[in-house]
Amino acid sequence: MDIVVENLVQVFGEAPKQVLALDRVSHRFPSQKFTCILGPSGCGKSTLAQIIGGIEPFTSGTVTVGSDAHQKSRIALGSHSVMVWQHLNLFPWRSVIDNVAFGLEMQGVDKAERNERAKALIASVGLRGFEQHRPPQLSGGMRQRVALARALIMERPVMLMDEPFAALDAQTKIVMQEELVRIYERSKRTILFVTHAIDEAILLGDEVVVMTARPGRIKEVIKVDLPRPRSQDMVNTPEFGRLYNRALHLIREEVLNAMKQQDAAVG
Ligand SMILES: Nc1ncnc2c1ncn2[C@@H]1O[C@H](COP(=O)(O)OP(=O)(O)OP(=O)(O)O)[C@@H](O)[C@H]1O
Ligand SMILES: [Mg+2]
Asked: Which ligand is nearest to the CA of 254?
């Protein structure tokens, strides 16, 4: 399902204290592709993901998800997409299986069916045997897998991920990236993945949308032609190095711009 954003503007707050978070952002996020959104802190990455997911209304522009075009209005929450955050919002008092099956429970799917589907997904993210555990009994990486399974069970064509692995330790992060690559390559959803990490963006994405410092605009779109299936070994290839250096150069410019803006605001 293509997602097309045209001249999207997002202004927060009331005059004179308004913040222009997104400034005429236009992009086509192609169907069944994995797009990473990279940019300095505060540039509007989360805002963009939340608008597409229907969590935030927007100021002006057009957002089209599939065949539904929206202007100056909120997209119906959850109509096409499901969101995965860094802060997982799992229910700590519910078992793993009841967390994963929650969305189906809300849809009124009967218990036998939802448990069967949840069990299959729990196994597919490597958590077989942990169905009856509760989130506080799991490691950070295991909790992140539960959150992934809980999103996947909704079978929405679009998955929006906002820095989902940012809080994980380096090794767990590598494992989770490989897991996500595997799931994506098998299920071919349209994925928008927000990240600060350049290596993560290149390893996962078919393209990397680099945003400017606030107000967020699209600075450059980097096509990532690395073959699939992807694996962590690719980070040592010359092609990966070339893409990394390009993204680093763009991000460095924008982080310096953001710092200048802050200095100007303070001074
Ligand atoms: N609900 C809101 N009300 C007012 N301002 C907001 C709101 N949400 C975001 N902003 C502002 O809009 C700008 C963009 O925020 P956003 O959270 O989208 O940035 P981000 O790129 O996700 O940053 P980070 O990388 O730190 O997560 C920021 O200046 C932020 O302070
Ligand atoms: Mg954010």
From this structure: 1
